[in-house]
Write a structure and sequence with these properties.
Radius of gyration: 23 Å
Bound molecules: tyrosine
Largest sheet: 6 strands, mixed
Number of strands: 8
Strand content: 5-15%
Number of helices: 16
Helix content: 40-55%
Structural class: alpha/beta
Length: 381
């Protein structure tokens, strides 16, 4: 690909973002300093990555094409600070699992991962310097502000833990300790980003730019949730499961608002196709014999119009999305099948939940005879 001009690079970095804070930082680095922008995206290594991960991957692809230096933070400590979503003894395996998935996802959309750097949170967040910075930050940020900052990211529970207040402080410090110019994330991170922008200068560190992606609804409508298995499709779901989940997915005929399947075409399938075909993407819906030619969409507006007119019915939309998604997932699942290391780490990262205790008929005094009977299930994901 021919070298892009500075303005083309900036346009590509901003493409499809919902919001950018301090865009002048991009100008300063790329135009005035004439050097690559250093940007990072952090992911807390908790539940299994799902198809929603294609959305940030596309932006990472843009950043790389725009000549940025891209860092991916595998935020293992954050994974457990957020209400132990990743128990401490599993968190390292999960980080390794994420590294495999993300590498394969990027490869599958044709992105070279050469200029991409993975960083494991615990590799630098336990250093004396970082720890001291965390103490310093905790003495300038109020409890109220830390709590507010995490409200959309950290699971909200009846007895909030102190760890939920540490989380946004560490995410702010990561910008300094990763040595970046900008942080990228979903717009759900906005309040943490604002905290970082406001508080880092108080420690004598510079304010970074913040690049925000829109939130893409899950297949069930609403945000994709790790705890509702039907709202998301796992990267390793078998074709049968993918078909079943899409069949069951919520799609009101003629209604495009809040339609997670249409959003998936808009934010994942069409852009990936465009990325692979030098800007000219399409989404194809095959029709049965006698029902007409395949429907071919090159832009989302035409697709939405056809959906509103019921020319593209929910059934047709689902069948088109199913085959496109199966094509996307196939090379990733092949990677998984051919990597023993990845398979090993998957088993360790997500062990099957302990089998439910069998109810013993007419058995009294459970405590002594069945010591495991009272054990709580801590890994109920
Ligand atoms: N808050 C991010 C999430 O919701 C994870 C993250 C953690 C991002 C630390 C950046 C960071 O520095 O997944």
């Amino acid at each position: 690909m021919a070298e892009l001009s500075a303005q083309e690079k900036i346009a590509l970095i901003n493409q499809n973002l919902q919001e950018v804070l301090k865009p002048e930082i991009l100008e300063d680095v790329i135009v005035k300093q004439n050097r690559p922008l250093i940007v990072y995206w952090g992911t807390a290594t908790t539940g299994r990555p799902h198809c929603g991960y294609f959305v940030p991957m596309l932006k990472l692809a843009h950043f790389l094409h725009a000549g940025c230096t891209v860092k991916i933070l595998l935020a293992d400590i954050h994974g457990f600070l957020d209400n132990l979503k990743a128990p401490i003894e599993l968190v390292n395996y999960r980080a390794e699992y994420y590294r495999h998935v993300i590498t394969s996802l990027l490869k599958s959309i044709g992105v070279s991962t050469d200029s991409l750097h993975f960083v494991l949170g615990s590799d630098y967040q336990l250093s004396p310097k970082y720890t001291m910075d965390l103490f310093r930050l905790s003495s300038v940020v109020t409890e109220h502000d830390a709590k507010k900052a995490g409200a959309e990211v950290i699971k909200q529970v009846a007895s909030p833990l102190l760890s939920g207040l540490i989380y946004p402080l560490m995410q702010s410090l990561d910008e300094e300790h990763l040595g970046v110019d900008a942080q990228f994330g979903g717009v759900d991170q906005r309040k943490i980003f604002a905290l970082a922008a406001e508080q880092l200068p108080k420690l004598g560190y510079k304010e970074r730019a913040h690049l925000m992606n829109p939130m893409v609804p899950g297949l069930a409508g609403g945000k994709m949730s790790a705890s509702d298995p039907d709202s998301k499709i796992d990267i390793l779901d078998t074709p049968e499961i993918v078909k079943k989940k899409l069949r069951k997915a919520f799609a009101v005929p003629k209604e495009v608002e809040g339609n997670g399947i249409i959003s998936f075409v808009e934010f994942v399938l069409l852009p990936i196709s465009a990325l692979k075909n030098s800007g000219r993407g399409n989404f194809v819906v095959e029709r049965r014999e006698g029902e007409g030619e395949p429907l071919v969409y090159t832009d989302i507006e035409t697709l939405k119009d056809d959906y509103k007119a019921d020319k593209l019915t929910p059934q047709l939309l689902k069948s088109g999305v199913t085959s496109a998604l199966l094509n996307l997932l196939a090379p990733i699942q092949e990677d998984f099948q051919s990597s023993e290391a990845w398979q090993e780490v998957e088993k360790k990262a997500y062990p099957p939940p302990p089998a439910p205790e069998k109810k013993k008929k007419k058995q009294k005094g459970l405590g002594t005879k069945y010591p495991g009977a009272m054990r709580s299930n801590t890994e109920a994901k």
